[in-house]
Amino acid sequence: MFIAVGLQVIIVTVLALAAGLLVDWGSARYLALGGAAAIVPNGLFALRLALHRGRPPETYPVVFFLGEFLKVGMTLGLFGLIIRYGEDIRWLALLIGFIAALKVTLFALAFRNVDRFDRWAGRKREGARVAAWHAKHEASNN
């Protein structure tokens, strides 16, 4: 979960730097604020889930759904603060930062599945080698 939050920070930082260099630093600021509106609640949610490890499994659904509810509330609150205290809000940059931070977690899941597939494929190849070795030795023993 912390890997996904780290990827969110990286992608929003890269996009904000690109926006600052290519457009202007005001857009970069709002892109970073939009990303922060997603990253901060996700980071706190990941921390809460990590602190809940080792507890009875029956409590996981309650912690998860309560955490999701609070995460959505915190995101709305952060957007409210940005709207209330922001000057000359760049809405497109704000929404791009927010959407980019939310969508990068899909890439984290994709990389995680590739790793699992590689391990599975490695076991399958290893299993085929072991089966071939056993077949060879059974044939030589008969």
Descriptive overview:
This protein has 142 residues and is an all-alpha fold. It has one domain (2-112). It is 88% helix and 0% strand. It has four helices and no strands. The protein is elongated and about 85 Å long. It starts with a helix and ends with a helix.
Q: Poorly predicted ranges (pLDDT <50, ≥5 residues)?
A: none
Total DSSP E strands: 0
> How is the biggest beta sheet arranged?
none
Q: Which shape, going by the Cα principal axes?
A: elongated
**Mean pLDDT over all positions:** 85
Bin the strand percentage. under 5%
DSSP helix fraction: over 70%
Radius of gyration: 23 Å
Q: In oligomeric terms, what are we looking at?
A: single chain
- Determine the number of helices (DSSP H or I, runs of at least 4 residues): 4
Question: In the residues, how many domains can be counted?
Answer: 1
Q: Structural class, judged by helices and strands?
A: mainly alpha
Distance between the termini: 54 Å
**SSE topology string:** HHHH
Write the layout of secondary structure elements.
Layout: H1 2-22, H2 25-51, H3 60-85, H4 91-141
Helix pairs in contact: 1-2, 1-4, 2-3, 2-4
Q: Tags for this entry?
A:
142 residues; 4 helices; mainly alpha
Q: In brief, what are we looking at here?
A:
The chain has 142 residues and is mainly α.
